[in-house]
Design goal:
mainly alpha, MetI-like fold, two-stranded antiparallel sheet, 2 strands
């Protein structure tokens, strides 16, 4: 008994010793900033003051009537509605192509598609801004020569096309991450099922509809949740790509918070904190709803 107690104490000591550094860092860089942001949102605090004054819920009341905040929320969710299906479906198509038996150069193309993922969003945004330049960008030059765009038309500088173009660039950047998820999911499906389907005379489309699609459903739910979460974190890319323009068409909520807190003529830290708190609350609600729907789906599958 004494030996067992000694072993348990030693195990507890090592568990605590390994968890403590991570817990401290998590508390310092996640828990404390979240609590501090919620408190700052109740203050009237500009960057020219050493500390703020208690302002109650007035920052939140002002947000309700702020047209620019409403526009940034609208731009954020429009971006999500464009980018999420595009990244989700295109990465699935590429994963199916790169796991096809007759596909040549699988490793090369997988590496090529994953390279944008390991490149920072700020660099991608800067490069894409030059590539899509209305006068000297190669994309615009090609489209102009093909007669698809008028001369001097900027896909990133036009109000009607800037958000869709930005969403496409974001989807391309992060497509490699979803591609890895899909490939891992496809490789988990036993090859014997496809061999049996081939013997029975099933076409590739029938094999996908009867075997691949049903077995991918659990993975698809997880990939969709991760993709939605990623689509709400676009700060570095959008800052360098459009900086919220033109005319706030691509002013995502993260850019609104940044501009309010640091870039306005009178930076308002308390007001920006209120916007950040609202955005974080919406993000949490979306995650909870997704998890709820996922649990419902899992319950139906177990019936």
């Amino acid at each position: 008994m004494n030996l067992n107690k000694t072993i348990k104490k030693q195990n507890t000591f090592w568990i605590v010793a390994f968890l403590l550094p991570n817990t401290i860092l998590y508390a310092m860089y996640t828990v404390y900033p979240a609590i501090a942001t919620a408190w700052y949102s109740l203050l009237d605090w500009t960057a020219f003051q050493r500390s703020g004054f208690f302002y109650g819920l007035n920052n939140y009341i002002e947000l309700i009537h702020d047209d620019l905040f409403h526009a940034s929320m609208k731009a954020t969710f429009k971006f999500m509605l464009i980018a999420v299906p595009l990244r989700f479906l295109m990465s699935l198509f590429l994963a199916l192509l790169l796991t096809w038996r007759r596909c040549i150069g699988k490793t090369f193309f997988r590496t090529l598609l994953f390279l944008p993922v390991v490149t920072t969003g700020a660099i991608i945004g800067t490069i894409m801004k030059m590539i899509f330049d209305p006068k000297f960008g190669p994309i615009n030059i090609v489209l102009n020569n093909m007669g698809l765009l008028p001369a001097g038309f900027g896909l990133l500088s036009n109000f009607s096309t800037s958000l869709g173009t930005s969403a496409t660039i974001w989807s391309w950047k992060w497509m490699g991450m979803s591609l890895i998820y899909w490939i891992a999911s496809l490789q988990s499906i036993p090859t014997e099922l496809y061999e049996a389907a081939t013997v029975d005379g099933a076409s590739p489309l029938q094999a996908f509809r009867m075997i691949t699609a049903p077995l991918l459903k659990p993975f698809a739910g997880v990939i969709l949740i991760l993709t939605v979460g990623d689509s709400l974190r676009v700060f570095d890319l959008m800052l360098t790509l459009t900086n919220g323009g033109p005319y706030f068409a691509t002013e995502a909520i993260e850019l609104f918070i940044y501009h309010t807190a640091f870039a306005d003529r009178v930076p308002r830290l308390g007001y920006a904190s209120a916007a950040a708190t609202v955005f974080a609350s919406i993000f949490v609600v979306i995650t909870l709803v997704q998890n709820f729907l996922k649990n419902i789906q899992r319950g139906y599958r177990n019936i």
